[in-house]
Specification:
Blueprint: H1 4-17, H2 28-41, H3 45-50, E1 53-54, H4 61-67, E2 75-82, E3 91-97, H5 102-120, H6 125-132, E4 135-138, E5 144-148, H7 152-164
Antiparallel strand pairs: 1-2, 2-3, 3-5, 4-5
Helix pairs in contact: 2-7, 5-6
């Protein structure tokens, strides 16, 4: 009996802490829409015009995912707003990793941030600061949210609040 209690306690803690990846109850299409709407709502009209959103239906989608270190098969839903100009560190990405791919997607996004920092380190100091201050975190449903733009904290919190309702 003395050995059974610690074993049960350990099992209960493991199930609580290691219960697997968090998943949204929304379909990929619903997530794509929610991501796009949240990103759009957090941007000014000027930013929306300068940095159009790129979704799975766009021609540049897979190219941009690749630049961000993400393979299309590693995610189930996403919305991207990325500067395609080489003079701005501006990227917002909301992605839902596919089952078991959370670490892979996170490492890809972390690598993308490092690449942006390296790109601007000796080129444009203000853009280097934007890249250096990028914010990447996992939301309660498992969404990975990357915000690399001026005022990233406010933009991140606005998108997060919109997605987590």
């Amino acid at each position: 009996m003395k050995r059974l209690f610690p074993l049960l306690l350990t099992l209960a803690l493991c199930l609580t802490a290691c219960g697997g990846e968090k998943k949204s109850d929304k379909t990929p299409e619903e997530l794509n829409t929610a991501y796009a709407e949240a990103i759009t709502a957090a941007q000014s009209p000027e930013e929306r015009e300068s940095f159009p959103q790129i979704g799975p239906e766009d021609d540049m989608y897979e190219l941009l995912l690749g630049l961000m270190g993400i393979a299309p098969e590693d995610i189930t839903a996403s919305a991207l707003m990325v500067s395609t100009r080489g003079i701005q560190a501006y990227s917002i990405a909301a992605v839902m990793p596919a089952e078991g791919k959370g670490d892979t997607v996170r490492k890809g996004l972390e690598g993308y941030i490092e690449n942006q920092k390296n790109t601007f380190q000796f080129y444009l100091e203000d853009q280097y600061q934007v890249a250096a201050n990028a914010k990447l975190d996992e939301l309660s449903d498992g969404t990975l949210l990357l915000v690399m733009c001026p005022e990233q904290d406010q933009v991140f919190e606005a998108i997060k609040a919109d997605l987590e309702g």
